[in-house]
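Let us work through a complete example step by step.
Step 1: write down the sequence.
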Amino acid sequence: MMNSSGAAAGETVAGAVAGEEPAPRRGRRSGNSGAREQILAVARRRFLAEGYHAVTLRSVAAEAGVDLALVSYYFGSKKGLFGAALALTGNPAVLLAGALEGELESFPERALRLLIGVWDAPDSAGPLRAMIGGSALDPAVAQLVGEVVQREMVDLVAARLGGADARRRACLFGTQLAGLIMARYVLRLQPLAALPADEIARSYLPLLRQALWGRPGGPGGPGGRRVGGARA
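Step 2: predict the structure and record it as tokens.
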């Protein structure tokens, strides 16, 4: 279920990712003029054609005819390049990686508030809606986005959690966030779409903690199972 503006946005991203740009030039550049745009053009086409895992910064640099250091300078990492290729001014994978750097107990709130913030901001929400619209319209885009979510979000959270069932818990955590995003920002279900961030946090944080630790509290609560050396 999607409104016409969402579908149009999806078509825009699907077309962009599908590589409707001119074919990239080969050969080493003597200067940096236009290099960033050339890198993005190559990255869009290759991500869609080969999938997220198969594409490397080195292979993109080689086809774009630039030094690998220049790709790293512009985009920092592969997830940064992916976000830029899809014109994501607020890249959820990058935000989530930053949220994981703090204490694990407060991670659910950091992740939730960062995602709400980026989806509430008009300049970053538009490209994100377009990406979801493209996923609905084009199976290749859907597969690419799913691979990024798995490798750069679910797997990242699982590695931080540790434990035998970390990936299952990380997937449940991501499912809760994805459901919130779909209901609030894509389907715009009321009253959820109109709730302030603080009220959403009060309602969703127990669900996110339950997904990660099997209880609505943090990882150190009594009676919880042991996760990565701490009781959950």
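Step 3: interpret the result. The CA atoms of residues 12 and 130 lie 7 Å apart.
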